[in-house]
């Protein structure tokens, strides 16, 4: 097993974590953000510029953006699903834009009202907008393993989108297990198929723990060459297509696993557990994090 | 990654799963057992012959044993921690005995009142008793990675116990992550250290999901050469040393992961989810199983 010395964890609690919660007041988001920044994380997905009526929890994207300048140790990114969203994100000052393309038509149409091919073709415009605005553009390929409408996603669709994104000038590529269904061997196989077509671009992965396999998939991804992982404090983040399911992989659980595998993340585990506790208090319900309950073995074992 | 075509899952819900629950009536245990047998599992750890005052939930071990003959597709085993327990298990008709040896002195003394070396030396007697009674003897090495009292367990202690067990005639070896702290690289390294000293004996592993890493560790174990895994329906089973922590890895979550990794278990996933639901109903509280909430992707995805 060849593991890298370090991986980058991007904290997505503020965006993917909160997007299905009852809207949190801006002041609470800033409290959570401060706790997250204290963990030592270097990249945070702060919000999304999408329809406020579809995602009311993120309707304050521009107001939140105006507050981010105080946190100067962190690279903030915003997620968008259209050129219009990218314009709003750039206007709000974001230097890092994530553009989501669904690899399946069912999810693409449900999410943004156009086919996967149409969303892929738009990468050209998104790259142009981002680069003209002095920002980087990451293409996140959603439903990379399974679609809630279309079933399993053929790997070739994901490979084709990654190749197109690379050709069209994207700065980073990521694959997302949108509904939390994938497992290690499927991860290993898809990452192996992607690496030859992305011309050395940084490759990230985004897992949900909906079926308990999120950390196993993350481990397999890192072993296969992924150097960037998304995670959310406390494991916050439901899935609209799987009621009752758990959310993103929990940052603190991922940091625990990676630390004990000898992979550095720059994130301090006690601070990550503290941030998860803040997230849990602010959303007002139990989060699925394991470390939040059980604690780090180094502090819970008596000596 | 070299994965085997198949692994054996031993269902431990009736023993490790129930041992800290309020004692379940025998009739309820038989209801649960019937649901578990229906999953297609071939090995079930039915109970333990230990002090009824220390583990009241398993005080009915002999009565339960008398009811097992009706399930003739399954190999039942019983866990013991002493020669006296082995004699009771053999008298009750068990043909497969598991003898637990803690690799750390702190846990060994707390659990059975003697040192790890003393417990290891007793393997001779246990093998003799089991073989004289026509039974097989598995040595389960507890606290194989961490001890709740002594901290991290030196791998050499586990290797020495496994070598002794092999030399003294044990039929199988297993390692247990008793407090749910281990992670994939530590698993890979310990399994690699064990394989040269166990003379080709079947090697099993037992994980708890206390820190969310149970399935990742199980995957790493299988990739490293383990062919036997313990799991409990619903993820039942608390840990006395980690209040609020989750229990064993859930059988249905493990079967899901292994199936999608191309590794056969002989267990039918819908029946495993149904057994988890029975376990949840009988113990009367929510279980940590992911599949019980989210379902198999093959049945929850619309097509």
From TrEMBL, chains A, B:
Q: Name one GO molecular function term.
A: hydroxymethylglutaryl-CoA lyase activity
Give the GO terms filed under biological process for this record.
ketone body biosynthetic process; L-leucine catabolic process
Keyword list, A-Z: Lyase, Metal-binding
Q: Which CDD domains match?
A: DRE_TIM_HMGL (cd07938)
Cite the Gene3D superfamilies for this sequence.
Answer: Aldolase class I
Task: Check the record and name the InterPro entries matching this protein.
Answer: Aldolase_TIM, HMGL, PYR_CT
Q: Which Pfam families match?
A: HMGL-like
- Does the record carry Lyase as a key word? yes
Family membership: Belongs to the HMG-CoA lyase family.
Name of this protein = Hydroxymethylglutaryl-CoA lyase
